[in-house]
Design goal:
By secondary structure, the protein is mostly helical. It is built from ten helices and no strands. It has helices at residues 2-5, 8-17, 24-33, 40-59, 61-67, 70-73, 75-85, 89-119, 141-147, 153-184.
Length: 197
């Protein structure tokens, strides 16, 4: 959505925002509160690939240009398996808590991102609302936390169903919110020449 509603700066910001997609911040929160003992190497492994790409892309313009097509090229390779693993029946398993989780995610983070972009006087603040999703790879967070002993198997199963439901709900609700806010704020036409990120 950053590519459709924003510009190259918005697309570049996606990699920094992607830190919240996986288990990194959850592991930090559980470790900092003492609820779980998270191995330091597990935290490092979630951040190093992003930092490496950030450093190399900023040090070498040719390398950045060479790797740039990979951002859109890889989308089908990780999105298809994630989407294939999701099941609309998980909405029933998760029930109302999973659906509410998805709606709250879209409303709170979507409007939070929108108003943050308005405060920053962005050209198109509706792009900020695009963070109102639950990323597909977040469904693996409970399994990662179970693997390091931070949660029980029962909690992991329940959380996985609720997160899967939230992914489905936000995949439907977030684009609608961004489109609504784009129209409301007088945003221009979408950049149809760019790929969704």
């Amino acid at each position: 959505m950053a590519g459709q509603y924003g510009d190259s700066t918005d697309v570049g910001a996606v990699s920094v925002l992607s830190l919240n997609d996986g288990p990194f911040f959850t592991m930090i929160a559980l470790g900092a509160t003492g609820i779980a003992e998270i191995p330091f190497i597990a935290l490092v492994a979630t951040v190093v690939p992003i930092l490496l790409g950030f450093i190399l892309g900023n040090l070498d313009e040719e390398l950045r240009d060479f790797l740039a097509p990979g951002t859109s090229l890889l989308i089908p390779f990780f999105a298809f398996p994630l989407g294939a693993a999701l099941d609309f029946r998980q909405l029933l398993v998760a029930g109302l808590p999973g659906i509410l989780l998805g709606l709250l995610c879209t409303i709170t983070t979507g409007f939070g991102g929108y108003y943050a972009m308005k405060l920053l006087r962005a050209k198109n603040p509706a792009v900020g609302a695009a963070i109102g999703t639950s990323a597909g790879n977040s469904v693996g967070t409970p399994a990662a936390l179970l693997g390091v002993g931070a949660i029980t198997e029962a909690v992991s199963a329940s959380a996985t169903a609720q997160i899967a439901a939230a992914i489905i709900v936000t995949a439907i609700a977030c684009p609608m919110l961004v489109n609504f806010l784009n129209a409301r704020s007088g945003g221009g036409r979408m950049n149809t020449g760019q790929v969704d990120v």
